[in-house]
Amino acid sequence: xxxxxxxxxxxSVVKGPSLMTGSAPRQNWMDVPAIFKLGNFGYPAKKEKVxxxxxxxxxxxxxxxxxxxxxxxxxxxENWKEIILNGLKERLDKFRSLKIFMDCCVRCGACADxxxxxxxxxxxxxxxxxxxxxxxxxxxxxxxxxxxxxGRMVGxxxxxxxxxxxxxxxxxxxxxxxxxxxxxxxxxxTAEVTIILRELLHLLGIGMNWILEPASNSNRTGNHMxxxxxxxxxxxxxxxxxxxxxxxxxxxxxxxxxxAEILFITxxxxxxxxxxxxxxxxxxxxxxxxxxxxxxSTYASEGGNxxxxxxxETMKKLNAKMYAEAKxxxxxxxxxxxxxxxxxxxxxxxxxxxxxxxxxxxPKSPITGTVFDNAASTKMIHVTEFTADLIKNNxxxxxxxxxxxxxxxxxxxCNPARAMGLLDEPRYVLDHVVNNWWEMPENTIREKxxxxxxxxxxxxxxxxxxxxxxxxxxANAVKYVHDRHDVNHLGCVCAIDRATLTSLxxxxxxxxxxxxxxELVGNSLVLEGEDRQDISEEGLRTMV
Amino acid sequence: MKYLxxxxxxxxxxxxxxxxxxxxxxxxxxxxxIPYLAIGIFLYGFCNRVxxxxxxxxxxxxxxxxxxxxxLSWIKQDKLEAPVNTSQVVARMFLEIVxxxxxxxxxxxxxxxxxxxxxxxxxxxxxFGILFHYSFLVIVLRHMRLFLDPVPGLFKxxxxxxxxxxxxxxxxxxxxVTLILGLLLLFGRRLINRQVRYISxxxxxxxxxxxxxxxxxxxxxxxxxxxxxxxxxxxxxxxGLVTFQxxxxxxxxxxxxxxxxxxxxxLAYFPYSKLMHLGGVFLSPTRSMANDTRMKRxxxxxxxxxxxxxxxxxxxxxxxxxxxxxxxxxxxxxxxADD
Lengths: 544, 339
Known about the structure:
The complex is a heterodimer. By secondary structure, chain A is mainly alpha-helical. Chain A is built from 22 helices and eight strands. Chain A folds into two domains: 24-207, no CATH class; 214-541, no CATH class. Helix content of chain A is 45%, strand content 5%. The two termini of chain A are 34 Å apart. Helices cover 59% and strands 4% of the residues of chain B. Chain B has 14 helices and two strands. In chain B, a hairpin with a 3-residue loop joins strand 1 and strand 2. The mean pLDDT of chain B is 93.
């Protein structure tokens, strides 16, 4: 699909009449239906993918069918209304957060202009408060006396097909980045609301292919890309070859090896697509440099978890492979690669869902002896924590000047920032592997970081304009440091970022290249017995 | 409509109390029965709502980290914004509840030609909120003097502090002014800020108007219609209410009944409205939980029994490929027929 030109979009986001640019819509939001047209929705999940997921033990994905959002008839079950209301009731009973978030909002509007999708589209329903009201209005109608009696006047409304359609549109224009929850005086987290909306929609067989296909792939082959074991290994082996060609050192890489000390799990995109490939090469070089006894797994070959974007059952099922594989291989603990939502699952959900991991040991760096007591129970640490500790203890032979082609800035990926607090570790690493890097403006970094605009499974091409709009705040902050400091590289610890920020930069700030932190770590390392090509211009990206 | 309905509702409440309290015999209803009823509804409703929340478990620990988490020993943790234990959580909650810390962070986003986006600090909402809430709190505490005999020193100090400017006779309370100001600013913000105006509901205007009317009747009573009321009788009624020996004298004055009736309305309305943010803020999982999820296992009481797609099933599907490419397997391939 052709994407709108940058000139046109640049004008539209500033001058286009919208609630963001200063004009107010005349109609009450309840009277504005969601209208689907090519470009504003992700394609529905393929029937066979839904059927496959539904056939898996512990999962339920009913109403698999061919359907199309532009059609009037979404082919829902006859008792769709009952299904949704029962589903809502069940979730209110299961999640205290949902009840509190439904009851406590005072509509102060602090969240309104914090959402990247609202800033980029000006669509009122992209204000976090209104996104939540889409559900809250139904909740009021069913669960509050005032709503039952006074109805619309107090923000309650009847559940209709149009409401379902609206939910589909706006729960897929939210990336669950949690920026709004930083600013909310009650900590209301729109991610929770979006998660529930998406769960409810799946009860009716409404979902996006770009999420359900990776989820079903991940279940079957172990990774989103659907790479079968031999292909996964082949891809990784290509990277081993590349590292050898560039550095003269062939990293030792093993798969599904029992008895390894550590299991390493990273998003499969890292062995499959640029620029994640270079991040994966970075991991290989780092682990080779320190002689780490570790293994990759083809069965648990996905760090990411599209279950988080689907429902809690799928999230649990996909995540469960990590501990299962760690147990089977008999490793001591797990190191996780660079990925945002992956780390939300690992940090906040994994132990609860699939623990206790009593067959693993508290992570201890075999090189420095540091015990990672921050992962005492989960027994899984972030590669950046691991690397920062190595640097602190002078265990890496770093030649910073090898990254002198880089003038970097740092993007805090949403989930590690706001659902983990991983902020200073990557900065410490960056300080030690790059000579030149600058922070973006202060209200756009750390806990206030802006989403890439395409997280939670929205990185599909058919909604490119929405993605470019949603990514504008991030891109604009990058442009700021590009204009002032000639920044040409944008770093992150997120596999989705690596893919989506690349599209975003190509559109808004084409001079800027996206990298994963470990890429620069790997490129800066002086390896024993190395025979390094001249790769001073592009580092690990050099074609040889 | 959004403004008219709540305005009309508040005016109607005023008229009901005004006329009602003039009907002989109804003073007891407005002075005793309705206050007891309102308190009852408030307590019942408030507890009920908190119990309703508490009945649902917290399946996942989902704090929003707004600063550096607990990590390596030499990385400085932001104890207030990414608390890792109970005392740090308490400190975070204290600042959130007492100082509205999250609102302090507020920024205003603007788009300019370029496009160029800016995010300037915007503390107006924080200021208006603090102004309103603290004025309200002080006024509630000041009123305790009516219910207690003798009046404890603390409330005397609050009252003294509140009238320290010594303006007018009787002396003006600062909080009367700041409460009205806070309400006007919050209301003005709802009207002027387009985004907030668009999302505002009757439920947002009604409490503003109601509290405004309460404040106004209170001020009228103290400064302008003082002659119409009998403060001794009011005190006797108030003390009587809390000691469950209510006695009502004939001529307390309509303005008092209006004031009281509006307060009763607020109490009864409270648990069934957004005003319950007073209770909810204590329970919000993104603020009230520790960021220690990798250190201590959090239990989900309804954790479903779901197993992963098994390794055995995976190997069965791909064994041949795995053997061919040298990936270790648990079960070797069966010998081929012609071997």
